[in-house]
Amino acid sequence: MRIFNQIAICTFWLTLLEVPCLCAEESLATSWVETVKKHADEAMHSKTLGGRQFWGDVHHLHGWRIQQNVFTKHFRLLDPDDIRHTWGSFDECQTKLAKISDERRLGPMKGPAVILIHGLLQSSKCMLQMGASLEQVGYSAVEFDYPSTQVSIPEAAQYLNQLIQSLDGIDEINFVTHSMGGLVVRAYTMEYNDPRIKRMVMLGTPNQGAELADITHQYWILRTVAGPGARQLGTRTDGLIQKLPVPKFEFAVIAGSRGTPTGWNPLIPGDDDGTVTVESTKLPGAADFTTVNALHSRLLWNEDAHKHTINFLKSGRLRTEGEPQPIREDDAEATTVSKQ
């Protein structure tokens, strides 16, 4: 009995810490989930302790989220404050959410929504300020989490597709993406579509591949830590990025820059945001383009970027004054020549 109690206590704390079952077979992982669930039901209403790189959103309702663990494949239900309410199968989480929705009279979501998609090594937490700005002008902000260091870009797009399908009642869907998040949307358009999608703003997305990724790819430890998605960010002509389609809906590009010929980072060519070059963000077909003076990680907090994003989602143009600056095919050709 004493040994059993010790096992139960260890399993309980592993649950709270959300340590994935990395080396278990699928059947063993399922057994692990069932065992932990049995001994942790009373501790469900606790705040999660992180582990955001191991979970992907598959369902959203007024800030409530059902997420799937990338390793064990089980699900959990989180409220807007990241308090866990149940876990197990998707059906169990969905049933619990339906009950909570009835009790709290949440009702279906409605109106226009903006799905905010973070980049590599980040989480939806970095999108909160942008989401707050969008909600002030009438959008429902849907912060989307995906395990950016554990899955490929097309696999992240599968999570996104499930989330989009869950948005019952929403009559207009837009995207605001940062860095690799824009590539996740482009990968989504390879396999999926939703007639409600209207516009997208891409901030610091390496649409032509990231030169910095070419450099870090030389070091195996960086390749390993950053994961399969990061290994797809390079500029190779036979790489994934070159195969991703241009979205058929309206989109705009905002690049971070220093406004100088050499930019912030001497390791990559031309003006840049420290991580992605201005030229690499350009994608032919964009309805508008602009730069803001900001480092890559600060784009999401930049006041001008917020204003431009809201302007585009509302009107189809980034600036209230002046003419739009669309990106044409010859712009991309110039970028390709400059890299050779």
Features:
20% strand; six-stranded parallel beta sheet; alpha/beta; 11 helices; 36% helix; 340 residues; Rossmann fold; five-stranded antiparallel beta sheet
Any overview of this molecule?
With 340 residues, the chain is of the alpha/beta class. It has a domain at 108-339: Rossmann fold (3-Layer(aba) Sandwich). Helix content is 36%, strand content 20%. It has 11 helices and 11 strands. It has a 6-stranded parallel beta sheet with strand order 7-6-8-9-10-11, sandwiched between helices. It has a 5-stranded antiparallel beta sheet with strand order 1-5-4-3-2. Strand 10, helix 9 (278-281) and strand 11 form a beta-alpha-beta unit. It starts with a helix and ends with a helix. Residues 1-29 and 336-340 have low confidence and may be disordered.
